[in-house]
Amino acid sequence: MIRYLTAGESHGPGLTLILEGCPAGLVIDFDQINYELSRRQKGYGRGGRMRIEQDKVVPQSGIRHGKTLGSPISFLINNRDWKNWQEIMHPVDEMPETLTGQKAKLAYENTRPRPGHADLSGAIKFHHKDLRNVLERASARETAAKVALGAIAKQFLGQFGIEFASHVVRIGSVELAECDLALAEIRELSEESEVRCVDSATEEKMVAVIREAIVKKDSLGGVYEILVDGLPVGLGGYSQTDVRLDGKLAAVMMSIPSVKGVEIGMGFETAYRFGSEVHDEIYYDKDGPKNKGRFYRKTNNAGGLEGGMTNGERLVIRAANKPISTLYQPLDTVDMLSKEPAEAIVERTDNCVTPAHCVIGEAVVALALFDVFLDKFGHDNMDDIRAAWQRHLDFEI
Ligand SMILES: Cc1cc2nc3c(=O)[nH]c(=O)nc-3n(C[C@H](O)[C@H](O)[C@H](O)COP(=O)(O)O)c2cc1C
Predict the structure, then answer these.
(1) pTM
(2) CATH number for the domain formed by residue range(s) 3-265+302-394
């Protein structure tokens, strides 16, 4: 139903993003989009780049007087750092051969691929002798564009009472114990925390372990959780590979740089338990909301998805991100051209980005849900979609 594309190098002039398939008549809150962008930039363990950038969207098309037209929406996000990189990243002008100091290093010394990054495979794939031609686009700077796109999806879903929260549940060896807070509370507490952890004692330990990584010139990954309430039953499908919502969610989550694992609900743990301990038994409440009956569960081990479809319970997705690949204490590598042993490139880098992952995860999940929502309820304009959604809610089996 929707298609989106992003373009732009990390230190180029900026990012470009296009969203096609957004229905007409959606009121867009630009401050909210910029707020989401600022959330991505925060978190203890981010590097110096985030102090330079103050991401904001520059709307280009598809929106008139604050409302979507149904035509492709496009935005720019300008890179403030571009002014420092013009000689190295200019789209037209040749790179000067006379750069000195740090600039010369960044310009001419890009032949030592970092383990864990796209560097070496990208260079071999595209026949690049300068790793900057790979790393500039493989950089997670691109995720700013995804967050802006996701902000539109969240605004659309918000019209139908669908709400998001996310929080960090592990950094390195430090893990949050059980969390059974309400969605609003998780949102509030994680927003206040510099590592997006809802428990202040665990937060302290997480900050300490990140600090330890910084001191050791090392990096850390973590685990985070995306939660979505208010989803109607039946988004997604079970009849083909490409309609299953669990598949779509896994794909978008795994496409976030450095995500190495995704779980829905009880996830991997389901494999270690008996069926009677896993499946969420079904009950019926004759006196549900608005004097209508409703099916419900007492547990949510399925994480809101059964048979590739939403089942009306909270959507629960967990993802694990590996530690950052650029290390200030560089790992062993081989110089691509001389084939001699070498130390990997060191660029200005983050140490831990799990808190930022939460915001990116919310965005890509919102885009996947936006897509299946439009598939179920129509996609041209908000009036038709709202009517179809209401009909679905009023339906009694
Ligand atoms: C928000 C965010 C910021 C990141 N910042 C850095 C960074 O500063 N330095 C770095 O080496 N990797 C960074 N990464 C991770 C790399 O993008 C990732 O290691 C790389 O894409 C290779 O991972 P992959 O094999 O999962 O694609 C960041 C990832 C995210 C999501």
Answers:
(1) 0.97
(2) 3.60.150.10
